[in-house]
Amino acid sequence: MSAKATTLLLLLCACASAEQGTPDTGAAPIDAGRPAPDAGQPADDAGVEPDAGAEPDAGVEPDAGLAPDLSPGEHELTLVTPDGRTRRYLVHVPAQRLDPPPVVMNLHGGGGSAENTRDGTLMVPLAEQEGFLLVFPEGVPSSEGGGGPLGVTATWNAGVCCDPALEQDIDDVAYFDALLDDLATRIDYDPRRVYATGLSNGAMMSFRLACQLSERITAVAPVAGQGEAFECQPTRPVPIMYTHGTEDMCARYDGGAMCGGCFQRFLNAWLGTNIPVPSWPCTGAVAYMEQWRTRYGCAAPSTITYQNGNATCETWMCDDAVELTFCPVEGMGHSWPGGAPPPFCDRPGSAQCVAWLNEVGASSDDIGNAQIWAFFQRHALP
User: Of 35, 46, 82, 149, which has the most beta carbons under 10 Å away?
Assistant: First the structure.
């Protein structure tokens, strides 16, 4: 295998190409964000005896049945969804947790995995510090839809993105409903404080959960991805904190007809190929938030609730005292703020890193996990 091909395998992350069967009117079907890539070969990791039907990962304690309480550390768990599929997720239990602990679900992007989101978003230390359960769900792997040169990658059916989950019409809302039921059999948690966040396709899925699982999802904090083209009639308005970089070249901040394709452009620039770049129309971030303001009845003027460097958060208090917060980040691209860079950007002047920054964009440390958690802490179900 050539050096370029070997390095290409390391790009299995929230940036793998997820080809679309339908035009996207929201965000890109690939997530070329900042979270560190998965190694792409979880079955070769050592030190784990996997749960039946799950791929092992080094350092993960496999499921040993319906334990009354999960021990501190990381556990790889599986469940069977109503459609008969065996699905997996990771859960990190902090050494000292709140009683009962809240749950934060961090959703990977299209073409990502539970592991690369764990590694790339750097949220585990915050979970240890604050005492919440940190869950990394996983979408349907692309191997079920034929696979690809990057190996097994996973996607969510977020209404307009991403294949194979979209093409197969996977009921991912039912998966999350089942996940919360399954987790409750393994460890006590606070059902009044269940939160969802995620990047790109994971952001879009978070928006879908706010619309279609609002009786269980307390609040959501999507990053870099508009969620559209699905029914949105929540049983209760779910508080939202939406973060989006103004230089996002995948889920374009200003929207328009040329959304998507940043990862393919990166590969073309790096490898010298000329593979056609997919694109589709999407709604701009400001206009998308206007849709939520209308849905939630946010008539009162907004206030600035956070400002640090290039990040500014604007908050509306809407009907029923529901919070809607929008956090544009000047200069940030399609990335997780405060997350880990791709490994090849340890050498900022390398051809790979230069191509990445040109096509995917930079990240930002002006906002991040601490602000997302502070937002979540303000909200609980009755």
Answer: 35
> Residues near 335 by Cβ (< 8 Å), separated by ≥ 6?
33, 34, 199, 224, 245, 360, 361, 362, 363, 364
Sign of the C-alpha dihedral computed for residues 245, 139, 257 and 288 taken in this order: negative
Which pLDDT does position 44 carry in this prediction?
33
Flag whether 165 is in a domain. yes
User: Residue 38 carries which DSSP code?
Assistant: B
Among residues 278, 287, 226, the alpha carbon closest in space to that of 251 is found at 226
Nearest to 217 by CA among 236, 243, 245: 236
317 within a domain of the structure (yes/no): no
Asked whether residue 125 is assigned to any structural domain, the reply reads yes
Instruction: Calculate the average pLDDT of the chain.
Output: 82
- Residue 7 confidence (pLDDT) above 50: no
pLDDT tier at 143 (50, 70, 90 boundaries)? low
The answer to whether 139 and 155 are in contact (CB under 8 A) is yes
CA distance 162 to 166: 5
Contacts of 219 (CB under 8 A, 6+ apart): 195, 238, 239, 240, 241, 323, 375, 376, 378, 379
At 151 the pLDDT is 38
Considering the domain boundaries, does residue 304 fall inside one? no
**Cα distance between residue 365 and residue 343, in whole Å:** 18
Strand, helix or coil at 197?
strand
Q: Which tokens go with 155?
A: 């996607």
Q: CB–CB of 140/165 below 8 Å?
A: yes
- Please tell me the predicted confidence (pLDDT) of residue 373: 99
pLDDT in tens, 182-201: 999 999 999 999 999 999 99
CA distance 72 to 57: 17
- From the list 361, 374, 364, 244, the residue with the least C-alpha distance to 310 is 364
How many structural domains comprise the chain?
Answer: 1
**Do residues 244 and 224 touch, judged by C-beta distance below 8 A?**
yes
Domain region containing 255: 3-236+248-295+329-377
